[in-house]
Each structure stands twice: as structure tokens, then as C-alpha cells.
Write a structure and sequence with these properties.
295 residues, alpha+beta, Phosphorylase Kinase, domain 1, D-amino Acid Aminotransferase, Chain A, domain 1, 2 domains, 7-stranded antiparallel sheet, 5-stranded antiparallel sheet, 6 helices, globular
């Protein structure tokens, strides 16, 4: 299988191409979102992709969308053969595209953190806080937090997303919306974390996106995938380490060993890194579908 780096639907024009997803207009009220095999890290898209990655991401998201029943989502249809024409005739969309309701996207990423890792760990080491939330002294890398934290970040179309405080978020959007986003983010994180425990997985953190449809906040984009979450192997988890994971952290860790400066155009990923990343994505898919989240 070759990596699908750019989707193409004859007779249509893309509205937008993100780091991973391509978006098309279906009609005035609906969009088609395609998960390609592009891979990004440190805010750069790499010249080669991971064959089949988009299919795995799409399948995982659709499973979670179907299980999370306490907040509405944007999914209308997952079977490409019943999409509007001409999308229903495009075989490349099979298992990697969804028909969704068009919403007013809330331009913040909503992050739930249960463990001290990634940018939260760096923030804590430098300030003793995570996104303006003070934490006690003496915490270690990968340590479980006393309680999960809601830590929003800006949603950048290019460049780096920036972690901000909830109070800063409230200055940009309706404060009641900000409160609701925090409640939903933490509820989804705890709901998913409980399900994943049965598969021997620790959900360290996850980022979610929401939109407004009418006057209601709904869940959009992707949900609880290895691109948007850190999944750790519970049997190998140790505090003060970089836990074994089934997600994009594997690529980040590899890149930290290379001379790439994270500012210049990124080099192609070596074939062995592509293969190993795909294995990790396939493994997390098997684990979550064989455990509490079944097809």
C-alpha cells in the first residue's frame, strides 16, 4: 500500500488541507473530512507518510464518536458509498472519510492531562505550574496528577499552538462556553480512560476540538486517536521515565536523536521509523477494539 498524501475527488475542490486532514464542501450544511496518511510532528508535515495511518485514525475516531453519548457530535455518515455525489464514487475515501455537519469551530484545542508529560512537564519544571495552574513541589516526569487538568491552547493554522490559562481563554470567548468546554473535555477524558484500562492502556492526555451548531457545543474533528492522545502501556509504566507508548510520541522521540533543527523543512522519515510507527498505530487499534471499545 502506498501512502495517500493528497486526496483527490474529481469534480470537486478542496476547501482546506491541514496537517493530516483534507476538507471538502458537500453542500451548504455539510463537509467531507478525509484522513490522509500525512504525518506531522513539531508543527511540520513530513514529505513521506505512513501507509494506512489515515484509515486507522478515522476508524478509531468513528468508534469513539459512536460511544460518547453525553455530547452531540458532527458525524452524519461514515460509509462513503452513501455520501453525496461525486464523493460516493471515490474509492480512495473508503474507511478514511466522514460526512459531517458544518459548525462554527471554536478556535482552541481543549486538552485534558492526567499525567505530567510533554509540554506540561516542561512547563512544570520551569514554573512549577501547568498552564497557570500551580502544582505542588517534587512531582516527577510521567507522574499521575492529583486530578486531571483542563489546559486549553490556541488553535494555530500554521506554526506552534500555545498553551494558555482558562482565564485567558475566557477573555477570548463566552466564559460560559469556556466552562462548558472544560467540563466536556474532562468528562470525555475520564470516560475514555476508564474504558481503556480494560485493555491495559493508560490515557495520559488527549486533545479535543469542539464547534458550535445553533446554540449548542458539539464534538468535532478527531477523537482519542494516536495522533491526538498519548496512550501508554500500563504494564510497562514507570514514574520518572518516558513510558512505552502507542502513539506519535515514537516519532518525536526519534526526531530528538537527529540533527534536524525543527525550523527548517523536515527530512523524510526513514523506512524503519515509518514501519514501526504503523505497527504502533495498528497495535493501539487492536487493543482498544478488543477491549472495552468494540466494533
Amino acid at each position: 500500500m502506498e501512502a495517500l498524501l493528497r486526496s483527490h475527488v474529481p469534480g470537486t475542490r478542496k476547501l482546506f488541507s491541514g496537517k493530516v486532514r483534507d476538507i471538502y464542501r458537500a453542500d451548504d450544511d455539510h463537509l467531507i473530512i478525509v484522513s490522509t496518511d500525512r504525518v506531522s510532528a513539531f508543527d511540520h508535515v513530513f514529505p513521506n507518510g505512513i501507509p494506512g495511518k489515515g484509515i486507522i485514525l478515522n476508524r478509531i475516531s468513528c468508534l469513539w464518536f459512536s460511544r460518547i453519548n453525553f455530547v452531540k457530535n458532527h458525524i452524519v455518515e461514515t460509509d462513503h458509498t452513501v455520501f453525496p455525489k461525486p464523493f460516493n464514487r471515490c474509492h480512495d475515501l473508503k474507511d478514511r472519510a466522514v460526512l459531517v455537519k458544518k459548525t462554527d469551530r471554536i478556535d482552541f484545542e481543549c486538552v485534558a492531562r492526567g499525567y505530567l508529560t510533554g509540554s506540561a512537564w516542561n512547563d512544570y519544571r520551569n514554573t512549577g505550574e501547568v498552564c497557570g495552574i500551580p502544582l505542588g513541589p517534587g512531582l516527577k516526569k510521567a507522574q499521575k496528577l492529583p486530578r486531571p487538568l483542563f489546559t486549553p491552547s490556541t488553535k494555530a493554522s500554521s506554526g506552534h499552538d500555545i498553551n494558555i490559562s482558562v482565564e485567558a481563554m475566557k477573555k477570548k470567548i463566552d466564559p460560559q462556553h469556556a466552562e462548558r468546554l472544560g467540563e466536556l473535555t474532562l468528562r470525555i477524558y475520564e470516560f475514555a480512560g476508564d474504558i481503556l484500562k480494560s485493555s491495559g492502556i493508560i490515557l495520559a492526555d488527549t486533545k479535543l476540538e469542539f464547534g458550535v451548531l445553533g446554540n449548542e457545543i458539539i464534538l468535532i474533528d478527531e477523537v482519542l486517536t494516536p495522533d491526538s492522545s498519548r496512550f501508554w502501556d500500563a504494564s510497562l509504566y514507570r514514574v520518572d521515565t518516558s513510558p512505552a507508548s502507542f502513539d506519535k510520541q515514537f516519532i518525536r522521540d526519534y526526531l530528538e536523536t537527529t540533527p534536524w533543527d525543527k525550523d527548517s523543512p523536515p527530512p523524510p522519515l526513514p523506512e524503519e521509523i515509518v514501519t514501526k510507527t504503523l505497527e504502533k498505530y495498528e497495535e493501539i487499534y487492536r487493543k482498544i477494539t478488543s477491549g472495552g471499545l468494540k466494533n
